[in-house]
Amino acid sequence: MTEWYPATLVARSPAADGLTDLTLDVTHTPLAGTHQRPGQYLHVRLPGYEECLFAIASPPGNAGRWDLLVKEGAGLADALVRLPLGAPIEVSRPKGRGFPLELARGKTLLLFATGSGISPIRSVIESIRLDRQEYGQVTLYFGARTPAAFAYERDFVEWERAGVRVVPTVSQPGVSGWQGLTGYVQAHLADEPLAPGTLAFICGQQEMAQGVIKALKARGLPASAIHQNF
């Protein structure tokens, strides 16, 4: 049975088309310090709505503030987006095994995300930025349907400056004028051999995850080096 704790909505900003970034404050609650690993998620509920799961997009130890990426179009998600700042929300403790970031120290790390699946991957990237010298090459393969659907695009420049290579690809560019890569993320894996000890973290639609796993295994990466956050 889920145990519920208080949180307060303290910030909200648009993240991309149909996606909103919310920040919850849990500083003065029993939840402070309970976010231990990037990739963990939590249950969220409001009166009158069915509870939902959301991954934590901020890094562990983020001073009692948790970022959530909310995909609009469902009852609870739309209600969260409409809440006034300062409103109370009930949440659970962070759950799930998350990503084993400690295994990536000194190694090449490949990150894969589509759509709102960037949320737990962002937690990984921000954790790496806090201790960048401890990690090897890091590349993010990020897929979205349209150019306007990249959540946290505002962070891409800072990620690149921190040595996190960002490879965005659009599956449905239409008449947007998009000049970058198109298609699915697994189609854009670099051709060069994977470095010994390379790890991969994946979050997104099941079809994408399966395609990425298949492509990585075909490149010789063992299943033990491929991780999802559930």
Architecture overview:
By secondary structure, the chain is an alpha/beta fold. The protein has 2 domains: 5-91, Translation factors (Elongation Factor Tu (Ef-tu), domain 3, Beta Barrel), CATH 2.40.30; 101-228, Rossmann fold (3-Layer(aba) Sandwich), CATH 3.40.50.80. Helix content is 17%, strand content 30%. It has 4 helices and 12 strands. It has helices at residues 75-82, 118-129, 156-161, 206-218, and strands at residues 5-16, 19-25, 41-45, 52-55, 65-71, 88-91, 109-114, 138-144, 164-170, 181-182, 199-203, 226-228. Strand 11, helix 4 (206-218) and strand 12 form a beta-alpha-beta unit. Residues 2-101 form the FAD-binding FR-type domain. InterPro entries: Cyt_c3_hydrogenase_gsu (IPR012165), FAD-bd_FR_type (IPR017927), Flavoprot_Pyr_Nucl_cyt_Rdtase (IPR001709), FNR_nucleotide-bd (IPR039261), OxRdtase_FAD/NAD-bd (IPR001433), Riboflavin_synthase-like_b-brl (IPR017938). This is NAD-binding oxidoreductase.
The CATH architecture of the largest domain can be given as 3-Layer(aba) Sandwich
| Mean of all residue-level pLDDT scores | 93
Distance between the termini: 19 Å
**Topology as H/E string?**
EEEEEHEEHEHEEEHE
* Tally of individual domains: 2
Name the helicity range. Answer: 10-25%
Beta-strand fraction estimate: 25-35%
Shape: globular
Main sheet: strand order: 4-3-6-1-2-5
Give me the count of strands.
12
Full CATH superfamily name of the largest domain: Nucleotide-binding domain of ferredoxin-NADP reductase (FNR) module
Question: How would you sum up the major sheet?
Answer: 6 strands, antiparallel
Task: Determine the structural class based on helices, strands and strand pairing.
Answer: alpha/beta
- Quote the CATH topology of the largest domain: Rossmann fold
Q: How many individual helices?
A: 4
Rg measurement, Å: 18 Å
Unreliably modeled segments: none
CATH domain class of the largest domain: Alpha Beta
Domain FAD-binding FR-type: 2-101
Pfam families: NAD_binding_1 (PF00175)
Protein name: NAD-binding oxidoreductase
InterPro entries: Cyt_c3_hydrogenase_gsu, FAD-bd_FR_type, Flavoprot_Pyr_Nucl_cyt_Rdtase, FNR_nucleotide-bd, OxRdtase_FAD/NAD-bd, Riboflavin_synthase-like_b-brl
